[in-house]
Amino acid sequence: MSNISGTIKSIRDIFRKDPGLSGDAQRIEQLGWMIFLKLLDDKDKEKELLEPKYKSPIPTELQWRNWAENDEGITGEELINFVNNKLFQKLKNLTIGIDDRLGIIIRQIFDGTNNYMKSGTTFRQAINKLNEIDFNSSKEHHIFNAIYEDILQGLATKKDTGEFYTPRAVTQFIIDMVNPKLGEKILDPACGTAGFLVCAIEHLKKQVNNIEDRNTLQETITGSELKPLPFMLSVVNLITHDIQVPQIENGDSLSREYNSIKQKDRVDIIVANPPFGGVVGDGMETNFPLNYRTKESADLFLILFIQLLKDGGRAGIVLPDGSLTGDGVKQRVRQKLLEDCNVHTIVRLPQSVFAPYATVNTNLIFFEKASSPSGRTGGGATKEIWYYEHTLPEEQKAYSKTKPIRIEEFEPIKAWWKNRSESEVAWKVPLQTIIDRNYDLDIKNPNKVVEEVVYDRLAIISKLEKNQTKISNILEELKSLA
């Protein structure tokens, strides 16, 4: 394992010597597009062996093998000039056919990405180091995936980029519970660096038995991401997980006109951690029906998810407490969710799950789109909601970067899921109770056993007396100064 890990670490150390690179986000962007081109070229070489007629969407002179692979290749000023004035210019203006999905992705990546390096000799050292990784070697490929997750996690600790990374245990648990089947179309409309989609791929790979199955898997994993850096990282993430041409759009899912979403656009499964606490771009809310217009991104995404699901379709999403409560539009959004879908389970998470970059309380919401009367699958609207309070492990006061939430902690919920009963951590709420609360879903655990702490009265009196003495002393000092 240490070999690739050491290589990536060496590249990052080389980056630190370059005056053009400042901060982790820039270093990761630089590493990202370099990995993307090397990865693509390694995959191209494989395809050329299997299909003699195959032609890469990247022009010959810009292929990694022709400017970067030779350790004694161009360096210094010549290298910087080539990258800035030829490589980037040509790739962001790539001529592509209308159905060339990979070509479109390449163009979008280079349109939203920068070369920050200023020193051509340092750049050459970094390139030579990256050449030590062979992305076609399956052994290296698995190791790289683990390290890539590390890179993404490192990025997530930066305050301004927190929404890129959902803890692996959370994505894993949601996928396990939604339980996608091969052939179902899966969508994450705010996919960040593709954590949910990668978990879904790993889940589905167990169901792949032949080439046809493999092709089905390729075509049914879809997503969308607005920001250039996570978009690029998601593409790399999916390609390293054997998705040859990722079906990821670089755009804002909320920019889509709500009523333009028709049956052919709908999907079987939505898994997502939509951006919350954010304000949507100017005028985005006008894409939605008047009743549901708001500037709060999480609420608009919720309306979008309902519209994007097929009848009987399933969803597992992360939502903040703020989306479970509040009146006006927020209340109407929740009412629509409960009437159009069967919201069967809400898992309440401890505050620190997304620490250190988000401290809001979050929930995992699981629902199925109700079938229309003519529908054949799925049930109806919500009749009751089961709540489950996920508690911190004993002896742990909070999750942190070094002690994140672990998938093992979800074992009790998984055991309860199939055979539900009320307990100290689980409770059931009938729909009528929720209607009476104006569709407020922020329902605290009524079964929680609160230990009564009996204080020693003498200790309390002694503490009060000490405080009283302190206050008197301060007052005396202030008087003497007056």
Name the descriptors:
482 residues; alpha/beta; Ferritin; Rossmann fold; 9-stranded mixed beta sheet; 16 helices; 9 strands; 12% strand
Mean pLDDT: 89
> Which outline best applies?
globular
The H/E string reads HHHHHHHHEHHEHEEHEHEEEHEHH
Secondary-structure class: alpha/beta
Count of DSSP H/I helices: 16
Largest sheet: 9 strands, mixed
Assess the beta-strand content as a share of residues.
5-15%
What does it look like?
There is one protein chain. With 482 residues, this protein is of the alpha/beta class. The chain folds into two domains: 2-136, N6 adenine-specific DNA methyltransferase, N-terminal domain (Ferritin, Up-down Bundle), CATH 1.20.1260; 147-436, Vaccinia Virus protein VP39 (Rossmann fold, 3-Layer(aba) Sandwich). The protein contains 16 helices and nine strands. Helix 12 (297-308) links the parallel strand 4 and strand 5. Helix 4 (76-92) crosses helix 6 and helix 8 crosses helix 9. The protein is globular. The model is unreliable at 373-378 (pLDDT under 50).
